[in-house]
Write a structure and sequence with these properties.
By secondary structure, the first copy, chain A, is α+β, with helices and mostly antiparallel strands. In chain A, about 55% of the residues lie in helices and about 15% in strands. The first copy, chain A, has helices at about 5-20, 85-95, 100-105, 160-165, 170-175, 180-215, 215-250, 260-320, 330-335, 340-360, and strands at about 40-45, 50-55, 75-80, 110-115, 120-130, 135-145, 145-150. The longest helix of chain A has about 60 residues, at about 260-320. The two termini of chain A are about 40 Å apart. In chain A, about 45% of the residues are buried. Chains C and E meet through helix 1, helix 7, helix 8, helix 9 and helix 10 of C and helix 4, helix 6 and helix 8 of E.
């Protein structure tokens, strides 16, 4: 059972690697010629400060007409589990670069932001706790001057809170330009890292409590698994810091400069996540070292007991063996006081050994 | 008992994490809708070089009128254990950004400085020794052109010395602008890190003395706990260095440039704290390595004793065993000199073994 | 069998070192005066958007005439397994610097890009899985305003997919300038790193599965070999990141600026490779630590069993030995209940020992 | 006895920490209100290229008159073991900033240079070997356009060589401006680090020689102590590199630009010291690893001997034990050849065991 | 014998340290007042593209007249094993700074380049394999607009290849300005590092082959020595990279800018050397870890054998001991089937133990 998170992680990455290996030699920006999965779900929210209309275009049909914005409307297009066919149609409609489409279609991109003439695309990995392990799901956010497209796989409910907040007429999300919606979505993804941290800290506290007690191989194995989780999380978050920092420096034209403060807020949160992840690594290393030293300690104790017992009794047994020999001529044996004297000598040797051990502080 | 500092740390962070997780999906800058705690304490010091008046507004009432400054007065507002209600009212009065209020309300922010149009807010973590562990308490310092607001939780007495120094008419604190008060408060927080360092060094000296003697699991456990303390301290101080350095570079307009020298002084102190913390880490690692090697050494010694005793007596016992066999026809047994000869052989074997050990430098 | 990858790597590097050592003292840019190998293979593809003609000049002859471009044609010259003679003739024709020729002739250059007045030369190492190990083959790409020369050894089939794509009339490769062909070739080299990664992850998953089970020296040895592979891969890829980044910053005049996006795509891929390689290192270190702690655990278990058995039976054997002595006067021996009493005492001692072990949690 | 250097270091730092803790809450730049120690010694050297007059002002009196320079004279003021009273008077006379005075009075500042309007103050730590340990003494050098003040504690003889060189009429020190004297003093401090290095290398060579031989706990302890010394030295020198580099970049107005070459010379020396210190760390780590592996090796050897002996004789003893049993009906016992056959079997088992060990390469 | 490289290194450094310590307090740029060694050897090569004349001035005499260049001649002055007297005379003639002379005279300078008004001086450490260890010899190259001075100790034959190449009339060395000669000399020094690398890789391959087999203390010791060699090499080369990089950026006026490409070539070689050195470190660490884990493995095996044998026979011996007791009333002893029953029980116990071990996978 243990190691499942890690194995899951490795397996999952290998799948995405195999897909990549299969495409070696194709021109960049090539989408795979796959069957339409039929699973794609589109939801378009057209909103102004006062109006909101929700359209659910049929992904298998010619939905372009349905994506037309009316005057003054902003659009949030939610795309779930899109296949290559739908992505191509979206790419045509929004004039997305083929390389963007390729990124949208893959599921294990490193967090990054790419800048195009009239849009910006940010790839992040959202985390969710599932069956006791941290899994991640790629989220792509494409933001233009009056639209945001969010592209997700397998984790559609992630943006539910924003869905709800945008219902509020004349709310901030409705009044601000599309960059504010983008920040809200990004902020939500980052907030979910705190759930993962919370899970990790719960495990850490549990391990810390048990680790002080005694050496157990199961603790070491749990340390190993948790180390994988922490490393996984770290890998998702650390590149994100640079992504946000660079976005702040190279703010696209269609972003409102006074809203940069929300970007900085997200940046602060990411730095906090990274900070805690580093704390976790250090604590975990501490627990590991403690356990190793405890293993040492227990081995020393075991060996000490063995040595004390052996060292006392082996010489005594030898003496007993000597007087168990069957030689005809062993004068001590016939002496009347032979037996008590030998017993006395044995006692003296035993006591001497004990004194020696006490002197060496082994007892 | 040991490990309490660490466990305290983890538990405390988990509480703050849980609070954060509970707020996932809320817009940034949202304060929790909590009960008024009634514990908030406000103290306003209005001062000029020559005058000083102290007002203690009732935090539960409408205290805005009481915060009005008279002509030429500067204000130091001390806020202790504020709840969300009071923070909102303060935010209205001083025109603080909602994100600032959110930071003021939380208690485990990473040290940082945020720049707003007419104020700067610095978050630091003040340390205090409590029950043998280093605890930290968040302090927020909001500084504008003629006011400083200090926001604290659970550790109101921290700024007592500044409270006393500001009583002195025509003292430096009274004559300078608000940036000087800000430096004084920050300096005090940094000074308290030296108490924590002093505690750590006391522990280190004690461990060093014991560690040279012999291997003890209790030393390793104390190393583990102290390592947690040092790491904790490091985490509070290292981001502060960057905070101060950046403040020096991007000095706000309402800071007096000739006072920058005091900022540099604080910077020097922080660098010294970090420097010592790094020394502590290295020393602790040294103690740990020494203990591990000592464990090795003791194990080697124990094994050597066991091996010497076993190696001498096991063959001798075997010989005794041979002559303890009950075969009818064992000619040696009936020989008159059998017994002394066997004893002599045994002595020779024992002596040979001892010589062998001496040759191998085991004795 | 194990360690072959590493040994291969070391041996191979030593050969290239020996060649270098043999040339100490020669002026830079000196090609060795070697026999013509006769193995050189040249293939020139002259193409415009609409036309394509393929020429295979005889490398041993005077092929310069065959390399003349017609008006508007671009050239991709594929050079395989070139000897010094051919390189010199190519250098004359394309006016390559002697230092470039020296680099082309060597086979173990670190990835780099050198800038000359009218061409740019990029050295990369392409990987291929062979007999279960990652081997690398140097590829040099010389790109001018209307030509690309690719120089390879032993791995001519690498660029087959591009060879096929360039056949398509009016395809992108045919319409774009030579920089696009250069990107396509570089991209292919980088894509092949994903095959190597895939191989590494397969091994890692296998090791992870086995490592959780128990300590085995064969796992440690496989970790050692895989560590060599990962390190090898890392060494090929990490300098490449800098090479690409610098090319983006100092884009030569004859590169089309709007194509830079493809360079960035390659850069993203390289960063992903590096990212995964770092993950592999960490996972491998985790497996190693886990195995070491498992070795510890098993040793502890073995010692505990030994100690328990010895500690119980050694004292009992001693008692049996005492009553096996042949003294004439041993009153207990003649007592009727002597034997059962001694057996009872032995049982009590044994039970006591077991209780002691259970108390110490050894059982 | 061992560990004294470290303990000394810790104790000494704790004293300086306690002093600092005692001053928490005081305004920056506050000197302690201490008793005049009476130990302060002042020596003023007024010099031109041709003239030199030495004055020893009475530190307890009003010495300001004695510090007046005549026309064209430069001043080197040597201050030894100054108390707060004297520092305050000096501060008045030379218009030193209170923060400078605070730095002069403390004794464990990190190396740094502070820039003021008409002077520069550099704090360094000079080392001296004392009783087999490296101790450090703070030296402050204040340099203005025509004066240098050196402030020391407990180590007045440090600058004796400069004292002697300045006696030479028309020597370089006499002709150059005060920056040259400053360089000379700084250079001397840096030169003394080479003595400390020399001490460390002597110890290292000794340890290296012994460490190759065999594992000894005393070596490990000496490694521990030497590691403390090296770390101590490192901490003194590494910040100094940055101090000098920055001084070179931001050369004050009253420094002669052509003399910068002497600053670079000092910089080179510091880099050399750091370089060697890093070498020492690496060598020490090598010795430590070697010793640990040697401990392993010896333990393996001890265990191998124990195992060989036990494994041979324990089964033999068992056989002897079987035939020492007193059963009435043991047919072998009465057989005439029983005894020699059993002896033969024992011999065969012993020989078989030895063969087994040889096969396993344990012998 | 082992460790000689290291000891040699330490001893050699200590000598150079002692010399430095002896000079503490002297003004910078002071040469020691030593006896003329008489060993100095001078060789001046005056050359133009068409002419070459070689002069060997007598170092003990007044050789200045012999160093006069004729119109248009460039000079390469080779100085071997120079004493302070000769250096002073050279310094006068070429107007070298005293600090340069000091650097020329020392023999363990860190690689560096110093810039003076009309010359540049580069210090490097050339390596040579001697008696199985890597030794280094300082080389100083002083280059002005029309002269190069090379100053060496103990390793005069290093520049023989350049000596030969400069004989060729109208060769590149003869036609180019002095910077090209400087590059050629520097390139030769760097090329020799590849010999050292080759030596290290040979050792590594040997160790790798042996290390896979089994744990041997001699391997660990060889790893230790090789680690010293690698570290030594690293220390010589790493500062050189920075030296070359800076020279490229701050190219002196009298260097020909088109020749910078040769400097870049040298830079590439240095980066390759560093790259390989890092590979060696990693490989060596891998071998070390492998050996440690192998030691563990062997210890585990030894202990397992001991435990199996002891655990089987100790209880059996106890049983034999019980029936060897001499009690009068032991009913089993007189039973006819006692002996075979006990033997059977013993067999059963032994078989049970074996089954237990097999279950635990110890067999």
């Amino acid at each position: 059972m243990q190691g499942t998170a890690l194995k899951h992680g490795i397996k999952w990455r290998r799948d995405s690697l195999k897909e990549r290996v299969a495409r070696i030699g194709l021109p960049p920006g090539t989408l795979p010629v796959e069957q339409s999965t039929g699973a794609t779900h589109l939801q378009a929210l057209f909103y102004t400060a006062n109006t909101l209309r929700t359209v659910e275009p049929d992904a298998t049909g010619a939905f372009k007409q349905q994506l037309k914005r009316r005057r003054g409307e902003k659009l949030w297009l939610r795309v779930a589990d899109a296949d290559a066919h739908v992505l191509k149609k979206l790419g045509d409609f929004f004039e997305l670069h083929p390389l963007t489409l390729e990124d949208l279609h893959s599921r294990d991109q490193r967090p990054k932001t790419d800048y195009y003439e009239n849009y910006v695309v940010t790839i992040v990995q959202a985390t969710r706790m599932e069956a006791g392990t941290i899994r991640h799901y790629q989220v792509a956010l494409i933001v233009g001057s009056d639209f945001v497209i969010s592209v997700q796989y397998n984790y559609a409910e992630l943006f539910q809170p924003i869905q709800e907040r945008i219902q509020v007429p004349r709310g901030r999300l409705r009044k601000e330009r599309s960059d504010y919606l983008y920040y809200a979505l990004l902020d939500l993804v980052v907030d979910h890292y705190f759930s993962a941290l919370s899970y990790v800290e719960e495990r850490l506290e549990e391990l810390e409590t048990r680790a002080v007690g005694r050496y157990q191989q199961s603790i070491i194995q749990k340390v190993h698994v948790l180390r994988g989780d922490i490393f996984h999380l770290r890998r998702l978050v650390i590149p994100l810091r640079e992504v946000i920092r660079r976005l702040e420096v190279e703010l696209p034209d269609f972003f409102v400069s006074k809203n940069v403060i929300y970007l900085r807020d997200i940046y602060d949160h990411i730095v906090q996540v990274i900070d805690r992840v580093e704390v976790h690594r250090e604590l975990l290393a501490g627990i590991y070292d403690l356990q190793l030293s405890m293993a040492n300690y227990e081995l020393n104790n075991v060996m000490r007991v063995l040595t004390i017992i052996s060292t006392i009794f082996i010489p005594l047994s030898f003496i007993a063996g000597v007087y168990g020999m069957n030689f005809d001529h062993m004068p001590e044996i016939h002496s009347y006081y032979g037996y008590p004297i030998v017993l006395g000598v044995m006692l003296a040797i035993g006591a001497g050994m004990l004194a020696f051990f006490r002197m060496r502080k082994w007892l």
